[in-house]
Amino acid sequence: MTSKVILNNEDIRRTLARMAHEIIENNKNLNNIILVGMRTRGVPIAQRLADNIKSYEGIVIPVGVLDFSLYRDDLASRNFYPVVRQTRIPASIDDSVVILVDDVLYTGRSARAAMDALIDLGRPAAIKLAVLVDRGHRELPLRADYVGKNIPSAHSEEIKVRLLEVDGIDQVLIEKTSPGAEVNTDAAV
After folding, report:
1. Sheet harboring 171-176: ordered strands across?
2. How many CB atoms lie within 10 A of CB 162?
3. Is 47 left (phi over 0), alpha (psi -120 to 50) or beta?
4. 40-58 burial by CB neighbour count: b if 16+ within 10 A, else e?
5. Is pLDDT at 184 greater than 60 in this prediction?
6. pLDDT at 143 over 80
7. Do the bridges between strand 171-176 and strand 157-162 make them parallel or antiparallel, or are there none, so unpaired?
8. What's the pLDDT tens digit per position in 77-121?
9. Residue 189 scores a pLDDT above 50
10. What is the pairing mode between strands 97-105 and 126-134?
11. pLDDT by residue (tens digit) across 3-61?
């Protein structure tokens, strides 16, 4: 496998600062927003966005953690039992604008599963999607409202997001997999 760094730590910092500004600009009432990180790497991204918004506007945005493992549509085909982790939403999502946060948007299936999990928790006024990387190749009619970086990729490539809080380093890599190798459709697990 060959890999190339697409975003380094400074690129990620600037990208998340820009995304936070976009969230501020596109939402008149920041007090009605809840950021919900999709496990695993969506959680620290959501927290960083909330920290940026607080430093720019002085408003504390609640940050939740969503485990959507049991809502995946590939459980039977993968023939494995997911490790279910805690979902923690710090405020009612009813009538709130929930911004789902993930590291990579690929097929859209994880985002769909996360929306199904959210709907079981309440009825938000709106659900928006924020992703650090959009790599294309959608299988469902979904798009992100807030995108850090569009990185066109081949199906034979994998986008790997590494975050300090999880991996000890901030970087985004693109890796070419060997022919016939199975590509992880979750991009970064």
Report:
1. 2-7, 171-176, 157-162
2. 19
3. alpha
4. bbbbbbbbbbbebbeeeee
5. no
6. yes
7. antiparallel
8. 666 666 667 899 999 999 999 999 999 999 999 999 999 999 999
9. no
10. parallel
11. 999 999 999 999 999 999 999 999 999 999 999 999 999 999 999 999 999 999 999 99
Name the residue among 56, 58, 57, 33 with its Cα closest to residue 46: 33
Residue whose structure tokens are 């910092």: 13
Alpha helices in 7-159, H assignment, sequence order: 9-26, 42-57, 75-78, 109-119
Distance CA 75, CA 13 (A): 34
Which of 1, 6, 2, 4 is closest to 132 using CA atoms? 6
Handedness of CA 86, 188, 20, 12 (dihedral sign): positive
**Distances, alpha carbon 1 to alpha carbons 36, 149, 158, 162, 181, in Å:** 33, 23, 10, 17, 10
* Amino acid letter for position 168: G
Domains of the chain: 12-153 (3.40.50.2020)
Helix axes 9-26, 42-57, angle to 10 degrees: 60
- DSSP 8-state secondary structure symbol assigned to residue 91: S
pTM for the full predicted model: 0.89
Q: Sorting pLDDT into bands at 50, 70 and 90, what band is 69? A: confident
